[in-house]
Amino acid sequence: MGMTTAPEEPEVAGLKGAVEEVRREASARSRLRAKLATGVLLAVAALLVAAAFAVAAPLTVATAVSYERTPEAAVATITIVVTGAPNTTYGVEVRGPANEIVAVREVETNATGVALLKLELPEIYPAGTYTVYVAGGGESAVATFTVSWNVTAPAAPAAPAAPGVRVAAENLIRVAVKLGTMVHCRNEVLLAANVTRTELNATFQAVLNLTKAGDGYLAQANASLAAGNYTAAMRYAQLAIRSYGRALELQEDIREQLGVSFAACRVTIAPPREIPAPARNATCRWTPEFYPLMTAFNVTERRVEELRRLLARLEERGYNVTGLAMMLDEAEKLVEEGRQLALACNVSEAAHKLAQANKYIGAVNAAIAKLGGMRFVKELERRFGIEIGKEEVENAMRRGKLPEKLAEKVNETLRKLAVTEKLSEKELRDVGKRVGNLEKLIEKLKKEERVPRIAEEISRKVEEIRKSIEREIARRAQEARGRGGKP
Does residue 119 contact residue 29 with C-beta atoms inside 8 Å? Predict the structure, then answer.
């Protein structure tokens, strides 16, 4: 990773560098697979060579730490080498000195049984001993590494700001503010979907850590800009963009598994704002906390509106939702109170009001899920003859796995539909009707990208049952003709 220098066109080069950096980060971690790198430390290279000649070696993990420093900031690069079975996927979890989750990744070993993962920890992470946990293929391994921000490392000499560096710094800060606003908005959406109560909570905690790191760097970027240190402002803004970019990637992974929508966050990115010159009467509206908080209030308000529409439909179907409507009234009241507190620069109390409002929304969400789960269970049993428990439906919905669970239950139902000679004509027709209904259901499920594999298996079973029915009808018709009767 090279040092930041003053380019000929800083405003253009700075933005292009930031965008390209985020693209590289996202590409490198696509589908949670770490990309093998070259040119690492000699110590790591030696580990790779040794691993290449190992045969059926037990799972091991090794780490190496290097630092990059400028006069304004420092970044620790952690190289993690996993040696295990060839072509095997391993889960990697990194925890900090206080046992907090720092990163959650998956890596796949190559044909020689080696995988390499690189993490970059900015200076906002605490110094101390970090622990790496690796598991997969029935094995597990643990390693540690130490981060010390007092380690002496070569630092680039401070260069005088070239003309235009301020403009580049301001542009980079704008990009960071937009990304940070989107990250905060998406966090609110995930919290409203009760992500902390699912198995995705560990990944979400990593998102929160990255969000906190990005916020810290954005604050430092603004402070450096106000102090006239534009080179430092550019550096901190780039670090903020990198942290937010990683958070957005993990949020997208959570969204896919949880089945939620980030549509509400698409309109939260405001047009570029002119960054004001430092002034004595600066208000809280230019602090890193203000805009994410206001965005969160807007998201919560839209969520209340969506839930009101949903309650109205439930009421039309005969459900008693009076208590839930009162909870939404309370949430709406808290949102308005919190927004006024934020505008008055009482940010901490405003955040408290927002948290209270989200608790009401979470309770309404949970109640609606239970009502929907009961109705869904009855509908599946009535129309398709599928036996499934209410808790199974609720758990599947909470994990975003409902299509897979339905496909699994369709499969089980089809296995019970045996065509035999003992069936009466009416029972035979009922089997045919149930198969037809199940076939319609599976056609809908095929639209889910995670279902087609099992859908194909189900389609084969449906075809087999149809042929069995046809053969049984033909056999009975032939018997009737043999007796001189009518089929």
Answer: no
Give this prediction's pTM. Answer: 0.36
Residue 34: CB atoms within 10 Å: 19
DSSP H helices in 400-486? 402-416, 425-445, 452-482
Residue found under tokens 């589908």? 31
Structure tokens at 268: 């939260």
C-alpha angle 467/412/395, rounded to 5°? 145
Q: Where are the beta strands (DSSP E) in 46-178?
A: 60-69, 74-83, 89-95, 101-108, 114-122, 128-136, 139-147
Tell me if residue 81 falls in helix, strand or coil. strand
What is the pLDDT at residue 224?
Answer: 81
Please count the other Cβ atoms lying within 10 Å of the Cβ belonging to residue 424: 8
Q: What are the chain's domains?
A: 33-147 (2.60.40.1930), 165-372 (no CATH), 401-482 (no CATH)
Residue 427 CB neighbours (<10 A): 12
Taking residue 312's Cβ as centre, other Cβ atoms within 10 Å add up to 11
Residue 383 has pLDDT above 60, yes or no: yes
Question: pLDDT band at 472, cuts 50/70/90?
Answer: confident
13 Cβ partners below 8 Å, 6+ apart? Answer: 7, 168
